[in-house]
Amino acid sequence: MNKRFLIASGGTGGHFYPGLALGKELRRQGFAVLFVVRKNDPAAQILDTHKLRYKEIDFTGLPRSVNPLRHLKFWAKFFKSLNQTRRIIKDFRPDAAVGTGGYISFPLIFTAHFMGVKTAVHDSNARLGLANRVCGKFADLFMLGLPVDKKIRNSVLTSTPIRSEFADAADRTAVLEGLGLDPAKRTALIFGGSQGAKGLNAASAQAVKELAKTARGWQFIHITGERWFGVIREEYAGLGNIAVLPYSHEIYALMRTADLAVCRSGASTLAELIYCRLPAILVPFPHAAADHQYYNAKILQEAGCALLVREDKNLEENLLEAFKRVTGKGRQLASMRGSYGRLHIPNPMTASKEIVKLLRHL
Fold first, then answer.
1. In whole angstroms, how far apart are CA 354 and each of 8, 73, 340, 348?
2. Can you give the pTM of this predicted structure?
3. Is 156 helix (H, G, I), strand (E, B) or coil?
4. Beta-ladder partners of 219
C-alpha cells in the first residue's frame, strides 16, 4: 500500500513554504499527501494553485493578552480543532504526520501521537518556536533547519527546503538589462519580505543615496513591498543606478544575480542565501518571537558570511557603515562568499529529498 502523509503547515511563509516544498517532493515520489491548514489561511490558495489537497481546521494561536474572553475562545477552538483533526486522521489513515512550525502543527502532532501515528516536526529557526517546543515532546523525529544551542531528542539537522526555482541558472545580463541596470557593475539586492519593511526601507534608501556619491562601481535593486513603493521611489528620484520594484515573482533570479543582499533573517531567506552563497547584510525583524531572527543571523555572522545590523535608532548610520565595509573592499565579498563552506549545513535544495528519506524510515 502506498504511504500517506499529513502535513500541518501555514501561518507565516517561513512555516508554510518548507511544508509546501516537502509536500511537492512527497507527491513527486508517488506518495499521497494531505495538508492541514488553519481555516481561511491564505496558504490554501497556494495549495490550490499547486493542486495539493488540504483540510481546514478552526484553530487560533495562544492569546498573548490576559483577556479572559480571548482565552475562553482559544480553549473552545483548541478542543474543536482536536476533534476535527481526529476525524481527518481517521479518514485519511496517514503513515506519518508532519508539522512545519507555527501553532497549526500542535493539534496534528498531539492528536496523531495519541492515535498511534508516527510524528515528525521541522523547525527552520535557530531558536525553536513555542508550538514546536511543545510538539517536540510528542515527536518521533525532530528536524532542524539551523543548528540550535540546546540538545533536542531525536533531532537531525536537515536544513530548510527551498523552492526548486533557485536551482535554475540566471542570465545576469538579461536580468540586469531588463531592469535598466549595467551588468558590468556589482549589484546589491535590498528586500524586506513580501509586505516590505518600513524601517529597513527608509534606512536603506538613505544609505544608498549616500553611497551613490562614492560607490561608483555599485548599483542597487530595492524591492519595497507594495505599501512602500511610492514613497521609496520618490526618495530615489534623480538617481540612475537604482531599480525600484514593489514586488518580484522572480526573487530567485535576482538572488542568483546579485553580489550582495540586504534583508531580514527569516529562516527561509537564510536557506536561500546559503544555497546561493550570497554575501549579506542582515537586519533581523526586531519583533520576531523570541528574537529568533537575531539568532538566525548570528549563525551567518559568526561564520563570516554576513554582517549583522540591529534595527534600532541608529539603523541608518549602522547600515551605511556596513555598506561601506562591504563595498569598499574588493576582497570582502569573495571572503564572505567563501565562508559559506564553514557552515556545514546540508544543501537546502536537497533538503526535501533527505526529509522524505527520514520520514520513510520512521
1. 19, 39, 20, 10
2. 0.90
3. strand
4. 187
The separation between CA 226 and the C-alpha centre of its own chain, rounded to angstroms, equals: 19
Query: Within 13 Å, how many C-alpha atoms sit on residue 353's CB side?
Result: 6
DSSP element (H, E) containing 207: helix 198-211
Query: Parallel, antiparallel, or unpaired: how do β-strands 96-99 and 242-245 relate?
Result: unpaired
Which grid cell sits at 66? 490576559
**Domain 166-342 belongs to what architecture?**
3-Layer(aba) Sandwich (3.40)
Q: Where are the domains of the chain?
A: 4-159+349-360, 166-342
Q: State the Cα–Cα distance between residues 179 and 86, nearest whole angstrom.
A: 51
Taking Cα atoms as reference points, which of 252, 235, 253 lies closest to residue 244? Answer: 235
Q: Which CATH class is domain 4-159+349-360?
A: alpha beta
- Assign residue 30 a region: left if phi > 0, alpha if psi is -120 to 50, beta otherwise? left
Q: Do 4-159+349-360 and 166-342 agree at the fold level? A: yes
User: In tens digits, what is the pLDDT along the chain, a chain of 362 residues?
Assistant: 589 999 998 767 677 888 999 999 999 999 999 999 988 888 899 999 999 999 999 887 766 677 778 778 877 888 898 999 999 999 999 999 999 977 889 999 999 999 999 999 999 999 988 888 889 899 999 999 999 988 888 899 999 999 888 999 899 999 999 999 999 999 999 998 655 588 899 999 999 998 887 778 899 999 998 888 999 999 999 888 999 999 998 999 999 999 999 999 999 999 999 999 999 999 999 988 888 999 999 999 999 999 999 999 999 999 999 999 998 766 889 999 999 999 999 999 999 999 999 999 88
